[in-house]
Structures are given as C-alpha cells and as structure tokens.
Design goal:
Strand order of the largest sheet: 5-2-1-6
Number of helices: 5
CATH class: Alpha Beta
CATH superfamily: Ribosomal protein L13
Shape: globular
Radius of gyration: 16 Å
Helix content: 25-40%
Structural class: alpha/beta
Number of strands: 6
CATH architecture: Alpha-Beta Complex
Strand content: 15-25%
Distance between the termini: 28 Å
Largest sheet: 4 strands, parallel
CATH topology: Ribosomal Protein L13p, Chain: A
C-alpha cells in the first residue's frame, strides 16, 4: 500500500486558516492520486514555530474559546490572544480538527499531526520534507 511521508511546515508569519486548511488537506491524503474518502491515506505533518502564527482582522481579541469544567456555572472563556500565549499548539490543533471528518477516521488523522512551539523537533530521523504554504 502507500508509504507515509513526513512533511515539515514552518508556521512563522503564516495565516492560521490557510495553514490549517493545507495541513488538513495533506492529513486526509487528498494530494495523492490514491485518495479515497473512507481510507486514511494521509501523511505525517510536523508544524514548528506554532506560537508565531498570524491571524487577520480583529480575531486576536474577538475570537473566543469556551471550555466547561463540568461544574454548574463554570464556563471558562478566553480569547485567541491569551490562548496563543498560553498554549499555541492548541490553537492550531483546534483549527485543523475542525477541518477533518468528525468520526474515528478523523481522530486517527489528527494523531499524525505533530505541533511544536519552537523550531526544535524530535523527528529528524524521519527525514521530513519542507512544505511551503
């Protein structure tokens, strides 16, 4: 069957939505001629410099992430600016997750996404290819 390739993406000065759509496209395997919607043919993606991703417009202050703790009245909300400072890998993971299928196939595709906040990663043995966005 298909061999899985490894790609590396530098997220520095790249718009979040464009990055997420390109990453989701490769995770699904739509760039291959053997693409089938019910088969996981996608490749592995390494995203570095996740904290330096860009957004357009007023999304830094207007985009809100909600989380419920499970207790009554404990809905925690934070905007994109604080999430990028606290956990930038969550922002990219959440954006890509929204563009993948909402079933077990999408969960397996998301496991092939590796996100790092700086330029160091531990996957040099896989010899990843650079991917320009």
């Amino acid at each position: 069957m298909n061999t899985k390739e490894w790609f590396i993406v530098d997220a520095e000065k790249v718009v979040l939505g464009r990055l997420a759509s390109k990453v989701a496209h490769i995770l699904r395997g739509k760039h291959k001629p053997t693409y089938l919607p019910y088969v996981d043919n996608g490749d592995y993606i390494i995203v570095i410099n996740a904290g330096k991703v860009q957004v357009t417009g007023n999304k830094l202050s207007n985009k809100i992430y909600h989380k419920h703790t499970g207790y009554i009245g404990n809905m925690k909300s934070s905007n994109l600016d604080t999430m990028l400072k606290k956990n930038p890998s969550f922002v990219i993971m959440n954006a890509v997750k929204g563009m993948l299928p909402k079933n077990s196939l999408g969960k397996n595709m998301l496991k092939k996404l590796k996100i790092y906040n700086d330029s160091e990663h531990s996957h040099s043995a896989q010899k990843p290819k650079n991917l320009d966005i």
